[in-house]
Structure formats: structure tokens, C-alpha cells
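User: Some background: our group keeps a shared notebook of sequences we're curious about, and every so often someone picks one and asks for a predicted structure to add to the entry. Today it's my turn. The entry only has the sequence so far, pasted here. Could you supply the structure so I can complete it?
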Amino acid sequence: MEQWLVMLVSYGVGTLAGIWLFRRAVLEHTIVQTIDNLVENDYARSYTNDEGEVELYKWYDLDDVIEEMAREKEKGEVKSEEDDTA
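Assistant: Of course. Here's the predicted structure to add to the notebook entry:
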């Protein structure tokens, strides 16, 4: 009967140690996936900086983003939704 108790306690300690060791990695992965999903579905705006890292625009930079999008649209650099359906 003692063997079962030792195995149960060992299993519980191992489970808690695994949760404690991997909690940060799981949290980071969840945050990265959420942000990537928001950018991919156009709920958040991003840009690539000089080092090649993707950064999110801050809320107070949105006027600059809107002006940039308008300039791109005037130049014909932005595809319209009609182009996507063809």
C-alpha cells in the first residue's frame, strides 16, 4: 500500500514541477500567438523596423499610419478588395 502512496506523491510533485517550469513558456507562446493573430486579421497595425523586427504601432501613431495608407493608395501600391476576388 505504501508503494501507491509514494507513486501518487511523486506523480503530484512531478506534475507541479512541470507546470512551474513551463508556465512562462506557455504564457509567452500564448501572447505571441494572440498578437500574431490580431495583426494577421488586421485588428492591429504593425511595421518592420530597420533591424527586421515586427513592431506594433502605438495608438497615438495611427494618424501617421492613415496618412501613409492614403499615400500608398494614391500611388496604387495597395491592392483593393476587388483585386482579391479575381
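Suggested note for the entry: Confidence is low (pLDDT under 50) at residues 80-86. The CA atoms of residues 16 and 83 lie 53 Å apart.
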